[in-house]
């Protein structure tokens, strides 16, 4: 089987790109499965070889034009390259990167994974000015099967893009449980030069507005937690907040292990990678309802789900966890066990069943 995997435009590895990379890594372990990945950020994560070929896609540089021009040029170049390197048994697109691939699709079975919807993310905006919205809507209409990364995203596809519920299957994003593992907490803190006796909350991201960094900062300032570790962006260390800046994946795993709790008060996500990576490292998570992690997290067992961005509510949950050592230890074990249920081996098998179904039709 030869699979065409269309990844994202990001120069760095984001959630969508990580999903493509991890899914492809497991797929190529199946006998007679060859994966061609079209994207910009895969070379650091997926090694080219007999069963995996990485084809770089770069949009043309057009200074002064709106940002979406580069996005549509990427879509166009990706489609042209897939035609050049084909034919394929399966076309598997992701997000809003498949406008031309869906618009001019042939008889090849075509699967789309949606990691959220622009319609929901831009709710309240005039969507007539947002071309990504139309790209997703056309892809949703043209694909044979739509995979939503959460039940919330499935509902968005039905509500905003008029997709039949029967056409949508839900497969939550997985996590590499062999890579994201709990490390010794004291050793992790020593590696990050953090005093061992303190308690730490962790915030991870590069978009402080969408992921409500200010909510996390205020919540920790009000709480009994000693410090807030911010990983993924730079800033000035003030009050209880410590900025680690952009860090490597091994250092991120160390940060997950060094912390006592993850704060993820995001405004909108499909099904984010950071909380499930944290769970795999045994780190309880306090997440917003908008993160959709409430679909798998059990309240008081793996963390808590908070509606909205009220820092006081987050502060109360922080104090509830860090002041109960027995609860924290039990939560840590159960978080790891939960993540094992969402390992990429299991999640890839669900995609594999869809592939086989499409090939039989």
Question: Main traits of this protein?
Answer:
alpha/beta, Rossmann fold, 2 domains, six-stranded parallel beta sheet, 13 strands
Secondary-structure blueprint:
Blueprint: E1 2-6, H1 15-27, E2 34-39, E3 52-56, H2 67-85, E4 90-94, H3 99-103, E5 110-114, H4 118-121, H5 131-142, E6 145-148, H6 151-161, E7 168-170, H7 185-191, E8 200-204, H8 213-222, E9 227-231, E10 241-245, H9 249-258, E11 261-264, H10 273-280, E12 285-288, E13 303-306, H11 311-322, H12 325-340, H13 344-360
Parallel strand pairs: 1-2, 1-4, 2-3, 4-5, 5-6, 6-7, 8-9, 8-11, 9-10, 11-12, 12-13
Helix pairs in contact: 1-13, 7-9, 8-11, 10-12
Would you kindly provide a written description of the structure presented here, covering whatever features stand out?
- The chain has 361 residues and is of the alpha/beta class.
- It has 2 domains: 2-174 and 343-360, Rossmann fold (3-Layer(aba) Sandwich); 185-340, 3-Layer(aba) Sandwich (Rossmann fold).
- The chain has helices spanning 15-27, 67-85, 99-103, 118-121, 131-142, 151-161, 185-191, 213-222, 249-258, 273-280, 311-322, 325-340, 344-360, and strands at residues 2-6, 34-39, 52-56, 90-94, 110-114, 145-148, 168-170, 200-204, 227-231, 241-245, 261-264, 285-288, 303-306.
- Helix 3 links the parallel strand 4 and strand 5 (110-114).
- Helix 1 (15-27) packs across helix 13 (344-360), helix 7 crosses helix 9 (249-258) and helix 8 crosses helix 11.
- It is globular and about 60 Å long.
């Amino acid at each position: 089987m030869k699979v065409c995997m269309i990844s994202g435009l990001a120069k760095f590895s984001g959630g969508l790109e990580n999903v493509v990379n991890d899914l492809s890594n497991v797929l190529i372990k199946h006998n007679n499965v060859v994966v061609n990945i079209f994207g910009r950020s895969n070379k650091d994560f997926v090694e080219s070889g007999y069963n995996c070929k990485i084809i770089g896609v770069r949009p043309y540089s057009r200074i002064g034009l709106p940002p979406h021009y580069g996005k549509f040029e990427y879509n166009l170049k990706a489609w042209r390259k897939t035609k050049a390197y084909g034919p394929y048994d399966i076309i598997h697109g992701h997000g809003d990167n498949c406008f031309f691939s869906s618009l001019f699709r042939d008889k090849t079975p075509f699967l789309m994974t949606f990691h959220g919807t622009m319609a929901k993310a831009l709710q309240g905006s005039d969507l007539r000015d947002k071309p990504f919205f139309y790209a997703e809507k056309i892809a949703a209409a043209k694909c044979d099967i739509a995979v939503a990364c959460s039940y919330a995203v499935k509902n968005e596809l039905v509500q905003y893009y008029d997709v039949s519920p029967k056409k949508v299957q839900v497969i939550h994003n997985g996590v590499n449980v062999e890579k994201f593992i709990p490390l010794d907490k004291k050793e992790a803190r020593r590696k990050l030069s953090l005093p061992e006796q303190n308690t730490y909350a962790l915030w991870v991201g590069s978009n402080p507005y969408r992921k409500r960094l200010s909510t996390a900062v205020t919540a920790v300032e009000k709480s009994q937690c000693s410090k807030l570790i911010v990983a993924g962006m730079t800033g000035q260390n003030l009050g209880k907040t410590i900025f680690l800046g952009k860090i490597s994946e091994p250092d991120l795993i160390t940060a997950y292990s060094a912390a006592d709790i993850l704060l993820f008060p995001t405004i909108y996500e499909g099904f984010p990678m950071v909380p499930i990576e944290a769970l795999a490292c045994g780190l309880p998570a306090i997440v917003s309802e908008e993160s959709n992690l409430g679909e798998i997290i059990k309240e008081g067992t793996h963390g808590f789900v908070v509606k909205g961005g009220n820092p006081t509510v987050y502060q109360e949950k922080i104090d509830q966890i860090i002041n109960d050592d027995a609860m924290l230890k039990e939560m840590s074990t159960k978080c790891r066990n939960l993540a094992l249920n969402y390992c990429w081996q299991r999640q890839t098998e669900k995609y594999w069943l869809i592939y086989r179904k499409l090939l039989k039709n």
